[in-house]
Design brief:
Helix content: 25-40%
Distance between the termini: 34 Å
Structural class: alpha/beta
Length: about 250
């Protein structure tokens, strides 16, 4: 597998507080790379920094995407190059139907979309097209439904790298299985996946994993071994917003 994302000594400071410290990670095409760690350790901040969100510009370090340094590119420019982010809390769009939402996402990547494509994408996330295409992407949809629709949109975009920020958060077992299948689809399509998760079930889908705590990488390698280290050997940090360790163990 070829390398698609390379992070070199990334440092992020927000409101004079160090959030990420010398993060260095590599992700390959078709690889599912999981990032785990306690709440508030910097996982989502890493996702936002990689995507170039406003306010998350790194203080130092570099981000390479397909061997190109992209640290100074905007969110839109990164998206056009094939990067996309699925939020932990998917957005609501008043007055925008599911059909419009799916079409806009695909067209942003220059993909011509037909009705059969929309229906295929929704079926892939276990949503019945006839019941949802005309509905609005608003509060009438559950969080799990919006997450699956967002993943359907990403399928239609055909990106090269997907950043999933806790896709398992707030969903039921059925939706969790659907999301797992979509991650497998991404892998089969040779799409790189950066998976931020707290779920052991999601972690089983990963090829590689990294543990982040206090904004630093402490362990990188086999997902099961990294998870075991986090559960049974990692101790609460005294220097970085201590948390009760038993409250952040994966599925404990």
């Amino acid at each position: 597998m070829d390398e698609i994302l390379k992070i070199e000594e990334l440092n992020l400071v927000l409101d004079k507080e160090s959030i990420l410290c010398n993060i260095s990670l590599n992700i390959k095409k078709g690889e599912v790379f999981a990032v785990i760690g306690p709440n508030g350790c910097g996982k989502s901040s890493l996702a936002y920094s990689l995507m170039g969100l406003k306010g998350y510009k790194q203080k130092s370090g570099a981000i390479y995407y397909k061997d190109e340094e992209i640290s100074n590119l905007t969110v839109t420019e990164r998206a056009r190059k094939g990067m996309t982010l699925a939020w932990q809390e998917p957005a609501r769009f008043e007055g925008v139907t599911v059909k419009e939402f799916l079409s806009i996402g695909a067209q942003s990547r220059g993909n011509n979309i037909k009705q059969k494509d929309l229906e295929w994408a929704l079926k892939e996330v276990a949503i019945i097209p006839q019941k949802y295409l005309s509905r609005n992407v608003d509060e009438t949809l559950s969080g799990g439904e919006r997450k699956r629709i967002e993943l359907a949109s990403i399928l239609l975009m055909k990106p090269d790298l997907v950043i999933l920020d806790e896709p398992d958060s707030g969903v039921d077992v059925v939706a969790l299985n659907n999301i797992g299948n979509i991650i497998k689809d991404f892998k089969e399509e040779n799409i790189g996946v950066l998976l931020i998760t707290h779920s052991d079930e999601m972690l089983k889908l990963a090829d590689k994993a990294a543990l982040i705590c206090g904004g630093e990488v402490f362990n990188v390698g086999d997902p099961k071994e990294v998870s075991e280290y986090f559960k049974y050997e990692c101790m609460p940090c005294e220097d970085h917003n201590p948390v009760e360790h038993q409250e952040v163990l994966l599925n404990e």
